[in-house]
Amino acid sequence: MPPLSFAYYCSGHGYGHATRVSAFTRHLLALQDERPTVYIVSSAPRHVFADSIACGALYRYAEIDPVIVQPLAYRVDRQKSVDVLKSFLSKKDILLERERQWLLKINVHAVLSDAAFLGCLAANAAGIPSILITNFTFDSVYSYLATPILDLPSPAHNHDYLDAEAASADFTSLVPDVPVPLSELVPLVEQIHSGYRCADLLLLLPGCIPIPSFSVSPALPSSDWVDVATKRVFPQITKFLTCIQGTHTLHPIVPFPRSSTRTKPKHVCRQIKPAPLLVRPPSAKASVYTPAGRAKLLESIGVPSEYHDHDKTKILVVSFGGQVFKRPGSRSRSNRSSRSHTPSPEPGKVKGSPLLRANELGADLSPKDVLHHLEPAPPSPTGSDIQPLAPARIATPSHLWIPGAPPASKPPSSSSLVTSTSNIPAVNTVPPSPAPLSEVEADSEYFSREDEEEDSACLLPDESWIAIVCGVSKEQWLQQSDEELPEKFYVAPRDVYMPDLTAIGDVLLGKLGYGTVSECVDACTPFVYVSRPLFIEEHGLRLLLDRDGVGSELSRHWYEAGHWASKVQEAYERGRDMKTRKRCDMGSGIGSSTREQEGRQMAVGVVEWVREWWDGPGCTVGEGETR
Question: Which InterPro entries does this entry report, sorted A to Z (predicted)?
Answer without folding.
Answer: GHMP_kinase_L-arabinokinase
